[in-house]
Amino acid sequence: MTIARRRTSATLTAGAISAAILSTLLSGPAAQTATPSQIPAPAQVQAPVRVPASGVYVIRRGDTLSGIAARHGVSLRTILALNRMHMRTIIYPGQRIRIGTGTRVAVHVVRRGDTLSGIAARYGISLRTILAVNRMNIRTIIYPGQRIIINRSGQAWAPATNPSVAQLKSMVANTARRMGVRPSLVLAIALQESSFRQNVTSWAGAIGTMQVMPSSGVWASRLVGRPLNLRNAQDNITAGVAIIRALIWTSPNLRIAIASYYQGQRSVMTRGMYRDTRAYVASVLNHERRFR
Fold first, then answer.
1. Which pLDDT score, from 0 to 100, does residue 101 have?
2. Domains along the sequence of the chain with CATH
3. Which residues of the chain have pLDDT under 50?
């Protein structure tokens, strides 16, 4: 991360744009010591998650509302309603929030050959319930190691997963095609931002594969018309692609759109590209040529 990132953290016209992990992530000490995310060992059903009997959770450092919701098998909407919060509410360590009464939520770990309809039949619930519970649709692609909540109430989010590099590349490319953005461009940005790792958070708070800031996640949620959980790999990628697409639509050219993803659109348009931004753009374009 750079000083430029700090001084441009709130410069996007429509909302703060995602922070990036600078190119040192690809060549510096962090890249040398980090290892790719590992897929959980296959199993038919993981141990259920239990919400505390008191229905009260104490916020810890690094927590997010969407992450708490996923971890305890309740919907983000439920947590917001119970605590009279909204998507922009700021939480802090030590804060106590209500997460509902104690429940148990079974989690299925996808295995090779699984289908959503087959999983639904195996547990005796409808496909519609599976889709609703996990915020999926009939076209959602599932992959081995992904965790899917099995819950008849329809009140739970899919928990965050850490797919492999190969799986993330496939998810990025498929999401880009579906949303009308050139896959090679999104793959290049994902490589530059995180080296295709979902389980990373920058010191500035940017999350996941596309390194999306929580505030930018709120904006991306509005762009796609549904809440996005940045700790979930597919939602994180969707957020990043939605932001890139919006920047392409509203920027004079592609170079400015890429720069805006890093520096912020308002800053780029009023101050020009900083030196590190120009290096970021050049690196992304170089990566993109490799992915064509």
1. 54
2. 3-34+163-291 (1.10.530.10), 46-150 (3.10.350.10)
3. 1-51, 53, 102-103, 152-161
- Total residues belonging to the chain: 292
Tell me the sheet residues that pair with 45. Answer: 108
d(CA 258, CA 244): 8
Query: Which amino acid, residue 32?
Result: Q
Per-residue model confidence (pLDDT) at position 171: 92
Which tens digit of pLDDT belongs to each residue from 2-40? Answer: 333 433 333 333 333 333 332 322 333 233 333 333 333
Residue with tokens 């909540």: 149
Amino acid at 72: H
Q: The pTM is what?
A: 0.50
Residue with tokens 């004079």: 252
